[in-house]
## 1
Amino acid sequence: MSGSEASGAPGQTRSGPQGQTSPATPGAASPGTATAPTPGPVGVALRPTAKALPGQSRTHNKALVLRTLFHDSPLSRADLARRTKLTRVSISDLIAELIEAGLVEELGPRTESRIGKPAALLGLDAAKSAIVAIDLSNTETAHGAVLNLRGEPLAKRKVAIGGATGQQALTKVSNLAKQLISQAKSTPVIGLGVASPGIVTQTGTVEFATDFEWRHLPLAEHLAKCLGIPCHVGNDANLRALAEFTFGGASAAGLMVITIERGLGAGILLDGVLLQGRSFAAGEIGHLSAMVDGDRCVCGRYGCLETVLSKPALQALGTAAATANPQLDAVGQAAAVVLAPIASALNLTDLVFCDPSGLVTQALLDAIGQAIAARVLPTISADLTIRISTLGGKAALLGATALVLSEELGIT
């Protein structure tokens, strides 16, 4: 989740991650017209590594090849056959199809010395296709980009939201998407990904986004009809976690990505599964009680974690956030009240703070780490890494890109 909203799961207009079919929510693209969301699966599995079994689709095996090349190229056809456990005949057939589609390219012969004819190496052809991504997590300014399949930006654009809500905000987002698509020029756009605050269902419906006053808005469906390309929408905190996994090299064994903006939210990957919850609200940690006698929160209660760990709260600390002091210790203790039970119950290995404003300091991380270590078993704290995201302010855009890669090509 992001801000004071609960987190959801990546959404899409056609199918869920790894082929889980989810029909688009019917109805007009206007707030307040749809029914309550149907409870979904508690998690979405990522990055399977086995070949498809009899009866499963050819699409699975193409995705397996693309995913392998995305992470491990350059590889030869024989390398791919060994890694995917597909036959060499199947690999040759799939590679021919993917080269024709402009998704894979031959990179030339292998140069190291081996007996016999050198094998031709293959790689993902990232330049022949584009993805459009939009980040709505900053509700004052929407940021967008055109990126290649490696997540490298080709063009950027932003538009002021300026407090727009409802249909007006939706129109601004649609116009930004159109402008970005035009900037892709002759490069085919395989899809649009949107990182949205609020509760987002598997089908890309924004069930609840306070700042935009969106209720039951089938955002993915609306944009797909408006733009004529596949569109996928996910909660911004979940997509930042997906970005860390896809582009940041993070393990999905036990990863929690904590987003600090106007409020506080988290995306969680556990044993290769993106946790989303029955009502798409997994990761709602900002309004967990962290202090008995804390300040009043925007939700109306007292002592919520985001009253001390959010953009406004850290801005209020000012220079006190730079070095160890009693104020930081208090924030660390409050954070540990919430994070230590989660880290222990899920046996997390990584706590990654995504901080677009650059307010999280090493001193703050140290305070949080020390407070967590005092509350959990040594076997938990010894394996727990606490760090700042290396993706910086582009994490949400990369997460939206990763969502399109996952839904359209099976790459995570």
Note: The chain has a mean pLDDT of 87.
## 2
Amino acid sequence: MKSFGKILSVFLALSMVISVYSVPVYADESWPSDVDIESPSAIVMDISTGTVLYEKNADEQLYPASITKIMTALLAVENNDMDEEVTFSYEAVYETEGSSIARDVGEVMTLEECLYGMMLESANECAYAIAEHVGGDYDTFIEMMNEKAEELGCTNTHFNNPNGLPDEDHYVSARDMAIIARAAYQNETFRIICGTKTYQIPPTNKHDEITYLRNHHNMLYPLTTTKYLYDYCTGGKTGYTTVANSTLVTYAEKDDMELVCVVMNTTSPNHYLDTTELFEYCFNNFKTWNIVENDELYSENQETFFTSDASVFSSSDSMIIIDETAEIILPVNVDFSAAQSTVEYSEDGNIGTIVYTYGDKQVGSAEISLSDLSEISFSYPSDTAAGSEVDKPIIINIAKIFLFMILASVIVVVIAALIYLKRNYYIIRHKMRSKRRKW
């Protein structure tokens, strides 16, 4: 408990330091917005931070068409193994229309093959079969889709099928779609599948020949023309129905910046032209910063932050860890120091989160957590002469010491009991015999 008290004291001191150093920086807090597109609804989001770099009617509820399949894929890769066998039901084959790879009732493919069929060729029967397999039944999967959307923070979304076929109760906003697409892209399996240009499904129990698949996203793969190819495109999903018009989700990476762009309710080829224009604008006008590398307030070089009366932070291994991969994103002409930071406390395994803002926008965050306290190395001053080799740190394994103390306590108790019995043996025997005579 004393150790916990010391940690709590350190963290309270940390809070005071943050309050002192979080003085507003009065800089040019304008947000780049000098770009115009034809699509009526669009958004660009930074994948690392979740920061919205551009938006236009991003909260309008619209029909998504086949970009719905990103949510279907996300649930599949999160809940199932890719080598599981999926069997196509009568409903999967005959109660879907539109894009297809002509599967048959009773056909068996792996879940991975179904995902490639759905994401590259937008096969609606594959989406239906995935839903039945992942959910156990179709209706359960639809419930899973809406539960996942709510979990991610979507507020203008309701799914009624796994493929995006027209339905009045099936809608999503550009902002919600970007949130879903960002979550999906953080899964390695999804990233690989949505960024694959071509794929081959081997012969199945119903098809003797290979089924060849090609990605329909023209910014990634020139299915019909090369004029929309974009060098930094890493994947995405197309969508189209007569009521939804053209919808498009696209991922792009450049200079350590990963973005996702969503355009909805537009006409071809504006979905490609607008996406390219938005990517170029964002890549040219924004920059990412690694928090640990740039924020001296929370670095080990900040003596006020990392020292306490208990000298906890004079150890060679700090007890507080900040996520080394965390980033913020800012306009390209703005320095890291222009961002303001505050700490939001947490009730889970982490201490809290450092949240960064610039103007009225949250531009990134970093998790603060405790290091493994079972083994901390402490460096003690060396008496060696200047210039000589410094003593190596002494490694103290707290867990082992704790176990040793328990074992030692047990041994002491046992020894004390034996000594007591030896010294009082005859007295104890006399009392026991006296009790027997009374009985």
Note: Residues 202 and 210 are 5 Å apart (CA to CA).
## 3
Amino acid sequence: MHKSHENYYELIWMLAKTDFKLRYHGSVLGYFWALLKPLLMFAILNFVFSSVFADRIAGGEYYSLQLLVAILMFNFFSEGTNAGMQSLLSKSQLVTKIYIPRWTIIFASTVNSAMIYIMNLLVVVVFFVWKQFLPSPEAVMMFIVSSLLIYVIIISFSLFTAPLYVKFRDLSMIWEVLIQILFYATPVFYALQLMPLSIQQVLLLNPMAFIIHFTKESLINNHFPELWQGGTFFVLIIIVFFLSTLSYRKLSLRIAEEI
């Protein structure tokens, strides 16, 4: 059993590395393209909200650090869910012609997104050094846990939607619209505290809003969620993950026939 699991890990890693190489094959700038999108978004939003609306944002001189962290985290969520949802259809030849556990294809696609996210975090480190700001060890740990929770959300979403996407191709269009809505419903470029309390409570029902808000607060202000808040959120994420695995087992039975 242990050997079997080890083989699965090797297979996932091999597929993820292949995806990464193919994504930038023939590109002059290579990996830089993966960094260009979030950096351009950061540059535009940072200019607009630090210069044009400087009096209306919360975050002070470290607003740019909070903004960069939030953009990279949300971009990880966006890229990961898209890649995971489309993974089975994009690897249709593997699904129909070679027998490998289909869930390994889904995991490999999300691992590829995670690799890019981890590489992008080097930019975050550079910005924190440039600003001469050192977060507390507890805040760094909070950031790591938050990143892992985003990955669990990506996996849960992908296990549920990847089999459905094989049959319902409109899902990608629907998710593209929902991602835009979620972006504005997440305190990426604004502080949650600027909203009325009633709206704050509604926004925090969005898992990405909860994660990004408290990650920003912990890194800059050393403010953490209450133990009951963090514990409840963690338990809910784990429950969703297990429900997604159950749905995958049911929905994946006829994948090869429907591709």
Note: The chain has a mean pLDDT of 87.
